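User: C-alpha cells for this complex, please. No commentary.
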Amino acid sequence: MPFSISLTVNGVSRNVELDDPRVTLLDLLRERLDLPGTKKGCDRGQCGACTVLVDGRRVNSCLALALSHDGAEITTIEGVAQGDELHPVQAAFIAHDAFQCGFCTPGQIMSAIGLINEGQAGDDPERIREAMSGNLCRCAAYVGIVDAVIEAQKRLADAGRREAA
Amino acid sequence: MKTFDYVRPATIAEAVAASAAPGAAYLASGTNLLDLMKVGAARPDRLIDITHIAGLDHIDWLADGGVRIGALVRNADLAHDPAFVRAYPAVAEALLSGASAQLRNAATGGGNLLQRTRCAYFGDPASACNKREPGSGCDALGGENRLHAVLGWSPSCIAVHPSDFCVPLVALDAVAEIEGRAGRREIPLESLYCLPGDAPQRETVLEPGDLIVALRLADPTAFARHARYLKLRERTSYAFAVVSAAAALAMEEGRIRQARLALGGVAAKPWRARAAEDILAGARPGETIFRRAAEAALADARPSGDNAYKIELARRIIVRALTLAAAGTPQRLPALPASPFSSAPGARHAA
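Assistant:
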C-alpha cells in the first residue's frame, strides 16, 4: 500500500509517495529527493553524519521514520547557504580548517547550526564540546570545529544585535 | 528490516484500539525502536505512530505543587525548561547526561522509560538471548559482561536498564499514567519494571495495548536544593552509565531529614536504595555515614561476570553523589552534566 506524505525541504514543498514504510528520513533525502549532502555514516545514531534540522532542531535523520515526518519542515546542508553566500557556520568551518576528509562536515555544520539556535553553550569551549559530542570526526578536526562554532556563534549574535538595533 | 503495517492514530483511544492487532508496537520518536528493527532485534508487524496525537507533549504544573509531563515531551525540552530545572535539577542533569544533543531533541520521556537494554547480545540476533528469544540461553553469561548487572540478576539474564532519566525519577517517587484497554491507571515508576527471574522477556508490568501517556512528580520543594545525579562512563560524553547515582536530600538544621537514593547501570531496573535512605535519615551529612549508606545499598550485590569492580564503583559514586548533594545543587548545571570530573565545591576527586 503506498503512503503519501508532504513535507517542506529547504523551503520547498514536496509531496512524496512512498511504496515502503521502512524508509528513513535520511534515505528519503538521499535516495528519493536527490539531496545527497546529508551523509550516511553508521546509520544507527552514533556518528551524527546524518544530522539535519527538523522544525529547526537538529536530529539524526537515520533514526527518523520518513512517514512519521508528514508535515515537517526539514533543513539540510543544501539549504543553508543564501545563493553564493555561505552560512556563517560554513564560512567559519573553512576559516578554521575544521575538516579534513569532509565526510562528517555536513552533519557537523547542521549540528553546529542547531546548537547555536539552542543557545545553551554560548562561547564556552567545554559546553560546545559536550553539545557536539553526537558528531564524530574520524580525522579528529575537533579543535578547529570548536573554534569555528565559537566564531560563528559570535558572528550570528553580532548580526542579531545589529538587526535588533 | 522486516516490513510492517503503519498506522497513525489521532487520539489515544484510536491508538489503544489499533494495538489489538498481533505484533503491534507503539512508535514515538523511534530512536531506540528503529535501531533495533534495523538489526533485527525488534520485529513488529505493525507500528502505531503516536507522535501525531495532540496534547501528549505538555508540561503542566499541578495545584499540589507537582508536575505532569506528557509522554511525548522531548528529552531536551524537559531538560531545558527553566521551571523544571529549578524544581527537579537532578532529573534535568540526568537527561542532559544521556545520549547526544540530536537524540535528546528527538527522544521522548515515555520512550526513555521503555527503552531496551544495550546488552550487545540482546542486540545481536545471532546470539542466544532469553530476553529476545525466551529459552535460547544467555551468551552474556561467560561473554563480554563487564558492564552487566550486579543486583537483581538471574542466571537467565544479566542485562541492565540503560536509562539515566529513570534513576532520579525512581528516587523521587515518579508515577506513570497508563492508558490501557480497561481505561486509565497509575503505576509508581519503581513498580513498572520487572526483575528478570526466569522470564526476562517480561520487562515491565504493562499489558498488551498499554500506552504510557504521562509521568507525574510530586512537589519538589523538599529536595530541590540538595540534589545531584552522577554518572561514570567509559568516555566523557555520549555513553551509557557504567554506574550512576541520583541523590536528593531534604536538609533541616544541618541534618538530613529525609534522603532519596537510586542507582543506574546496576540492574534490570533503576534501583532504589531504601536501606541506605533509612541509614541517612536524621544523620548529619559526612563521609562516614555516606559510606555506611553505600555499603547498605550494595549489600546484596554480586558480580554476574567480569564486573565485580562495579560494586565498589557504585559505592564510591554513592558517596560522591551524596557529598555533592549535601554541598548543594549548583546554580547552573555543570558543563559536563553528571560528570564526576567536573570541579565543584565539596567534590572529592579520588573516586
